[in-house]
Description:
The complex is a heterodimer.
Chain A: E1 3-7, E2 10-14, E3 19-26, E4 32-38, E5 44-50, E6 56-58, E7 64-68, E8 73-78, E9 87-94, E10 103-104, E11 108-113
Parallel strand pairs in A: 2-11
Antiparallel strand pairs in A: 1-3, 3-8, 4-5, 4-9, 6-7, 7-8, 9-10, 9-11
Chain B: E1 5-7, E2 10-13, E3 19-24, E4 31-37, E5 44-50, E6 53-56, E7 65-68, E8 75-79, E9 88-95, E10 106-107, E11 111-115
Parallel strand pairs in B: 2-11
Antiparallel strand pairs in B: 1-3, 3-8, 4-5, 4-9, 5-6, 7-8, 9-10, 9-11
Amino acid sequence: AQSVTQLGSHVSVSEGALVLLRCNYSSSVPPYLFWYVQYPNQGLQLLLKYTSAATLVKGINGFEAEFKKSETSFHLTKPSAHMSDAAEYFCAVSDRGSQGNLIFGKGTKLSVKP
Amino acid sequence: GAGVSQSPRYKVAKRGQDVALRCDPISGHVSLFWYQQALGQGPEFLTYFQNEAQLDKSGLPSDRFFAERPEGSVSTLKIQRTQQEDSAVYLCASSLRNRGSAGELFFGEGSRLTVL
């Protein structure tokens, strides 16, 4: 069965610093991969997705993620954190050919210090 | 609005009560999903509809949970005889595409259920 591991339930960075949120998946066949962001009391919003085109995927708000098959990873990065980036981030995976159901990691809460 | 709408946003129930949570997906979206998000956890899949057909209910935790989408649009998640462990945020998501695609899921803001 598919699974997703997000390393670090809580990450804290200073404003302007690099953001790196880690995600590893388990699958013998490269799946579809997603990053979602959840602001307090709001629904999940898609940041970016990987579907087998370019391995470096650019998303909204300056975020990007790189698919590395050899490492089964899909880490999320942003060169310079803003205060508005403080939120919870979820990595998710779905099987190709599936109904489109997403399997989520447990999430990483990002705090940004002034 | 144009997004996924869920109601009620907050529900407090006494243990043993029945509750019904409603989801209005984006118009024209074929696929509809329900997820359960416990405090401090990621969303976990409950059930999936393609139009009015419930194609997967493998994530429903017990027979107290029931979902329907009779006309292929609005969906209702019903929980009978609520228990404290049912306390969670229930998320609804819809997608334009069918099986096998990498279509984006659009999420509602969720219904937060607290069982006392």
